[in-house]
């Protein structure tokens, strides 16, 4: 059995997917990019600014699911340029430094809406 998570505090999906799904005691989020929920526009700026918005989006979606950043067990980070790793990592650590989750970080050739970073996660409920 699965439960769909939707909140106006996170970006509305731009395709046939949900912000998150709860199943088996876990929350599985969709990949989040730097969309500002209030305006539904991409946040401009560098990878640090975009990572901060992504983390705020993940936080809002997890909280709507009855979870939180403190319950994240795994993240997937997708970077347009691996040279941005240090800047992304510094902001990421502001949100997930204590009891850090497992993580994969990869460089990809392109991301939705040509953003610089996308992050998804799995958390306990």
Radius of gyration: 13 Å
Q: Return the string of H and E elements.
A: EEEEEHEHEE
CATH superfamily: RutC-like
User: Class by helix and strand content?
Assistant: alpha+beta
Q: How large a portion of the residues is in β-strands, by DSSP E?
A: 25-35%
Question: How would you portray this structure in words?
Answer:
The protein has 2 helices and 8 strands, in the order βββββαβαββ. By secondary structure, it is an alpha+beta fold. The chain has a single domain (2-124), classed as 2-Layer Sandwich (60s Ribosomal Protein L30, Chain: A). Strands 1-2-3-8-6-7 form a 6-stranded mixed β-sheet, with helices on one face. A two-stranded antiparallel sheet has the order 4-5. β6, α2 (85-96) and β7 (102-107) form a beta-alpha-beta unit. The longest helix is centred in the middle third of the chain and has 18 residues, at 47-64. The two termini are 14 Å apart.
Give the key terms.
8 strands; alpha+beta; 125 residues; 6-stranded mixed sheet; 2 helices; globular; two-stranded antiparallel sheet; 60s Ribosomal Protein L30, Chain: A
Characterize this entry briefly.
This protein is an alpha+beta fold. About 25% of the residues lie in helices and about 30% in strands. The chain is globular and about 40 Å long.
SSE topology sketch:
Layout: E1 2-5, E2 20-23, E3 26-29, E4 35-36, E5 41-42, H1 47-64, E6 72-79, H2 85-96, E7 102-107, E8 117-124
Parallel strand pairs: 6-7
Antiparallel strand pairs: 1-2, 2-3, 3-8, 4-5, 6-8
């Amino acid at each position: 059995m699965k439960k769909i998570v939707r909140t106006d505090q996170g970006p509305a999906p731009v395709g046939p997917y949900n912000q998150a799904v709860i199943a088996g005691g876990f929350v599985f989020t969709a990949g989040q990019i730097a969309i500002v929920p209030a305006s539904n526009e991409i946040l401009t700026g560098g990878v640090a600014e975009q990572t901060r918005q992504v983390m705020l989006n993940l936080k809002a979606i997890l909280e709507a699911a009855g979870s939180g950043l403190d319950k994240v067990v795994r993240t997937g980070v997708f970077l347009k340029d691996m040279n941005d790793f240090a800047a992304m990592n510094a902001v990421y650590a502001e949100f997930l430094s204590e009891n850090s989750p497992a993580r994969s970080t990869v460089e990809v050739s392109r991301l939705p809406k040509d953003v610089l970073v996308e992050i998804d996660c799995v958390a306990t409920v």
